[in-house]
């Protein structure tokens, strides 16, 4: 196990221990001093401090490297959100290799995507969103190194109450349980040259490939879903320098013919015949 993986695992385990001790202290009225419960929390952050000092921290950015040009992973009319073209880290964290990540949502026609609401409806069905079920394409000739699609697709978080639940409770629990719970169903491609492409929040049971498969650019890999730490059906895409999101660091990308769309920028990618090579 690498130093970065060990640091991340130890940090997560110590946080879980902290919450378990606090819960047990309240529920069982344990006799030890309250400050004992906070020892795992202090150790958790000590692990990150030490890891940062010695270069093993999984959440620290690496030195800038040239952007890698790849094909777009979608086809049709889409809107970019949380784009690295506007700021990095694009998702406000370097964790899970997200420094240069981007989210994209489908909107085949203006207004065809349900708007965010203050109170009602609290949540929507995934079928209400045009992105749900959209095909996702390999961005280059590559080898599949990770592939999982067993997590359920949950309802959208398209209102203030649902978003508060996600940000304050669900996201934190998912983070404690590991990268897989954050990403939901996902696939990782080894593009060669130390670059890996991650597609996250895929639809359950939609993968058309498995680990070890060799794929070509443009090949359909899976469908857009709403699994993991996701507010609505969308694709979370990123390049990173390793296959494990827990230890990888982000790499900047450029989509051939598109560039890097900015936040709320509409972009269109021509559809390609099934099985066509880039």
UniProtKB/TrEMBL annotation:
One Pfam short name: Peptidase_M23
InterPro entries, sorted: Cell_wall_metabolism_enzyme (IPR050570), Dup_hybrid_motif (IPR011055), M23ase_b-sheet_dom (IPR016047)
Cited CDD domains: M23_peptidase (cd12797)
Gene3D superfamilies associated with the record: Glucose Permease (Domain IIA) (2.70.70.10)
Start and end residues of each M23ase beta-sheet core domain: 182-241
Record protein name field: M23 family metallopeptidase
Source organism per UniProt: Streptomyces griseoincarnatus
């Amino acid at each position: 196990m690498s130093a970065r993986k060990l640091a991340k695992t130890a940090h997560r385990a110590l946080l879980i221990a902290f919450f378990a001790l606090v819960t047990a202290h309240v529920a069982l009225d344990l006799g030890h001093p309250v400050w004992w419960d906070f020892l795992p929390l202090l150790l958790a952050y000590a692990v990150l401090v030490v890891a940062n000092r010695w270069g093993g921290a999984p959440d620290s950015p690496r030195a800038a490297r040239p952007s890698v040009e790849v094909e777009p992973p979608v086809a049709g009319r889409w809107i970019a959100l949380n784009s690295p073209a506007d700021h990095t880290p694009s998702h406000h964290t370097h964790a899970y290799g997200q420094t240069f990540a981007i989210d994209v949502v489908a909107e085949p026609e203006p207004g065809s995507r349900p708007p965010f609401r203050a109170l009602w409806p609290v949540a929507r069905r995934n079928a209400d969103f045009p992105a749900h079920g959209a095909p996702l394409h390999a961005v280059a000739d590559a080898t599949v190194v990770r592939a999982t699609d067993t997590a359920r697709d949950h309802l959208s978080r398209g209102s203030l109450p649902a978003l508060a639940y996600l940000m304050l409770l669900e996201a934190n629990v998912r983070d404690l349980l590991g990268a897989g719970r954050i990403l939901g169903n996902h696939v990782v491609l080894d593009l060669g040259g130390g670059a890996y492409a991650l597609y996250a929040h895929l639809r359950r049971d939609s993968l058309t490939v498995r680990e070890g498969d060799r794929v070509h650019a443009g090949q359909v890999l899976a469908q857009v879903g709403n699994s993991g730490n996701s507010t609505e059906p969308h694709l979370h895409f990123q390049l990173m320098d390793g296959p494990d999101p827990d230890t990888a660091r982000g790499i900047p990308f450029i989509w051939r013919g598109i560039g890097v769309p900015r936040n709320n920028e509409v972009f269109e990618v021509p559809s390609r015949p099934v099985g066509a090579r880039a």
